[in-house]
Amino acid sequence: MCLAIPGKIESISGDDPLTRMGKINFGGIFKEASLAYVPEAKVGDYVIVHVGFALSKVDEDEAHKVFDYLKQMEELGELKGDGP
Amino acid sequence: MKYLDEYRDGERAQQFAQEIHRLTTRPWNIMEVCGGQTHAIVKFGIDELLPKQITLIHGPGCPVCVTPLEIVDKALNIAARPDVIFTSFGDMLRVPGSTTDLLAVKARGGDVRMVYSPLDAVKIAEQNPAKQVVFFGVGFETTAPATAMAVFQAAQKGLRNFSMLISHVLVPPAMEALLSSPNCRVQGFLAAGHVCTVMGYEEYPPIAAKYHVPIVVTGFEPLDILQGVLMVVQQLESGRAEVENQYTRSVRREGNRAAQELIRKVFKVVPRKWRGVGEIPRSGLGLSEAYAAFDAEGKFGVAEHRVEEPAECISGLVLQGLKKPHECSAFGTKCTPEHPLGATMVSSEGACAAYYRYRRRN
User: Fold this and answer.
1) Contact: B12, A67; criterion CB under 8 Å
2) A69: contact with B, CB 8 A cutoff
3) For chain A, first and last CA: distance in Å?
4) Cβ-count burial of B280 within 10 angstroms (0-12 exposed, 13-18 middle, 19+ buried)?
5) Could you say which of B43, B200, B228, B229 has the lowest number of CB atoms within 10 Å?
6) Does the CA dihedral B173-B175-B176-B182 come out positive or negative?
7) Is A39 an 8 Å CB contact of chain B?
8) Across the strands, what pairs with B28?
9) H or E segment to which residue B153 belongs
């Protein structure tokens, strides 16, 4: 039920911050979502959407961290000689 | 899809699993709070990648599952009235009340409609001024910004034919209730990433300190969950009990302030009964005095309705992590997703339904 999915803002309609709506692209499926809670979001940004509301803007730098962490782990493993 | 597929990479999942195997020296019980995480764990077989010493306990984080019987009965009562259009998220429609469910009310002629967003219900109210439109407002903190906005907009538009039957629940009080139970086996938590996207995680350090449990805010994809488990295990093995954030691409420490502000404006914190668990103080949201006119319980006079929970279903024990679904004698026989005895079998995020779908063992 707390399912929330990342999608890309393709266009924005409305100026009132409380009723601003975005057209969101979820891998080719388009849906409208309220942008009331992500006033900083603009066209091209990825947002996490739950029941028709964008709840946060995906932080692109942070999104890489899982993979950076794995890479570090790999390098450390190689240093210790017990790498994969 | 970007930000989904790359977090499902099998090779990278194995890398995390190997690191968890390398670090684990003792048995540990870790609870994933959110039903969405339970679903992913069972669907992708994440628990089967982990060392035998690590037990994942499935938490109470499925709002459909914890909505008490009496609220479902109130929904059925309101939905059956001829002047009402009753709107709800799809997953509440099949939740059994004492005698029937919303789909059955619809089959008998009730106007029950599934909506994607609470704002759709507001639209229906605008289009049907002669009808009373009621939205079934269930969910955790993740959903509260959406229901709060629906009430706020209905008030701004002056809609007198819109109201909400609210059973909103809050996660941190439920975690505390679990931790303070003498039966508690939980030694570490994966906190719910989308709840924290809204609320942040400033509420958690006092809980981590008081009960000496590591709490790692965690996302929903396999790599997120495995990294979350790894971070909890690192803490447990080194004796730390801190709050950490794995799901940094979505969660900021302070959460979403704009959403919190509207939640505080529209709602107030109330005691709430959890199905199978009982009443937990300060664990729910109800409408604040300023928005009391939108409270369906008052409007339809169902506030005093009380029901006892049936005894045959062990969903309460499952929700507290004391029993696994297949340890129930009714599991897969008397109780199936087609004929559920309890709510954990109804919602796809309920532990029983997830076990039934992905690993039924006859």
Assistant:
1) yes
2) yes
3) 38
4) buried
5) B43
6) positive
7) yes
8) B54
9) helix B144-156
In this predicted structure, the answer to whether residue B273 has a pLDDT above a threshold of 70 is: yes
pLDDT of A83 over the 60 cut: no
Contacts of B91 in chain A (CB under 8 A): 1
Tell me what ipTM this predicted complex has: 0.91
Supply angle C-alpha B246, B252, B256, rounded to 5. Answer: 135
Comparing CA positions, the residue from B141, B139, B87, B135 lying closest to residue B110 is: B87
CA–CA distance, A33 with B264 (Å, rounded to integer): 22
Rg of chain B taking only CA atoms, in angstroms = 20
Angle at the Cα of B63 from the Cα atoms of B213 and B54, rounded to 5 degrees: 35
- Render pLDDT for B184-239 as a digit per residue (tens, 0 to 9): 889 999 999 999 999 999 999 999 999 999 999 999 999 999 999 999 999 999 99
> Helix %, strand %, coil % for chain A, to 5?
25, 35, 40
Residue with tokens 């929904």: B75
Can you tell me the distance from the alpha carbon of B125 to that of B135, in angstroms, rounded to the nearest whole number? 10
Could you tell me which chain A residue has the CA closest to the CA of B12? A70
CB nearest to A51's CB, from B64, B118, B227? B118
Q: Is the pLDDT of residue B343 over 80?
A: no
Both tokens of B180, joined, read 């303070």
Phi, psi angles (nearest 5°) of residue A13: -125, 145
A66 CB within 8 Å of a chain B CB: yes
Beta-strand relationship, A5-13 and B84-88: unpaired
Contact A24, A12 (CB under 8 A): no
Q: Are B303 and B59 contacting, i.e. CB atoms less than 8 angstroms apart?
A: no
DSSP state of B54: E
C-alpha span between A78 and B127 (Å, rounded): 65
Alpha carbon B304 to chain centroid distance?
25
Which of A34, A51, A62 is closest, CB to CB, to B248? Answer: A62
- Chain B interface includes A27 (CB < 8 A): yes
What are the structure tokens assigned to B204, written together?
A: 């958690």
Inspect the interface and report whether the beta carbons of A4 and B142 lie closer than 8 Å.
Answer: yes
A3 touching B, CB under 8 A? yes
Q: Which of B15, B36, B117 sits opposite A52 (nearest CB)?
A: B117
Token pair recorded at residue B80: 């059956």
Helix (H, G, I), strand (E, B) or coil at A25: strand
DSSP sequence for B108-138 = TT-EEEE-SSHHHHHHHHHH-TTSEEEEEEE
Q: Which residue has the tokens 């439920």?
A: B174
Chain-chain contact of B140 with A37 (C-beta, under 8 angstroms): no
